[in-house]
TrEMBL record:
Organism phylogeny: Bacteria, Pseudomonadati, Pseudomonadota, Gammaproteobacteria, Moraxellales
One of the Pfam families matching this protein, by short name: P22_Cro
Superkingdom field: Bacteria
Protein name: Uncharacterized protein
Length: 63
């Protein structure tokens, strides 16, 4: 899936897509034009089906 296909599938722009995925817009704009990361593709396909995408949980480390 390309970045443009992902945006068209969800009918959003890069900033809105980043918000849906819980990432910064700059991350979306760093994706290669011809192929987005596979894990993001799965998340986007989940969103297109109306499902909540899996998101990585932040882990706090106490030293």
């Amino acid at each position: 899936m390309t970045r443009q296909e992902a945006l068209a599938l969800l009918k959003v722009n890069g900033v809105e897509l980043a918000s849906l995925l819980g990432i910064k817009p700059s991350a979306v704009y760093q994706w290669p034009e011809n192929k987005i990361p596979l894990a993001r593709e799965y998340q986007i396909r989940d969103l297109a089906k109306g499902k909540e995408p899996l998101k990585r949980q932040s882990v706090q480390v106490n030293l």
